[in-house]
Amino acid sequence: MSGHSHHSTIKRKKDVVDQKRGQIFSKLLSAIAIAARTESNPEFNPRLRTAIEKAKQNKVPQDNIERAVRRASEDKNLEELTMEAYGPEGAAILIEAITDNKNRTIAEIKKILSEAGAKWAESGSVRWAFVQVANEKEMGWQAKFKQEISPDAKEKIQALVDKLENHDDIQGVYANAEL
Description:
The protein is an alpha+beta fold. The chain has helices at 6-35, 46-57, 62-74, 102-115, 151-165, and strands spanning 79-86, 92-99, 119-121, 130-134, 139-143, 170-175.
């Protein structure tokens, strides 16, 4: 027996679930706000339509979605970033982020990369290994070719991707390694 009340155990579990859900909501709403900057009508903006559908699939409340679209027309501080890095065994990594503070986000990403043994890459040095995918079902990047790496390097890259995806500003992480 744990020695704690049943209520405390439930509360702790619920807090963890709520925190993860809140992080997902935040990422999805940032993507909606960025997509709505050019055109706030989803009928004329396929990127916005896709972002809204993805938010609805993750059970984001309609009020929050509408607020994010309104925020896009008022708040011009949000900025999209595409960052590039080299992971273990030279695997190419592409990182997409939406942030209100570019300098802070870049510094935090560089720190995560250096802790994982990855290296920051200059703009354009990794992007050639990827092709941008934009259709009704998904938006993002896909590797032109997959790079074979050792099982140890796969574990390191997977840990790095997981750590990057847990960052609030990161929208997507793409690697050309076979994971």
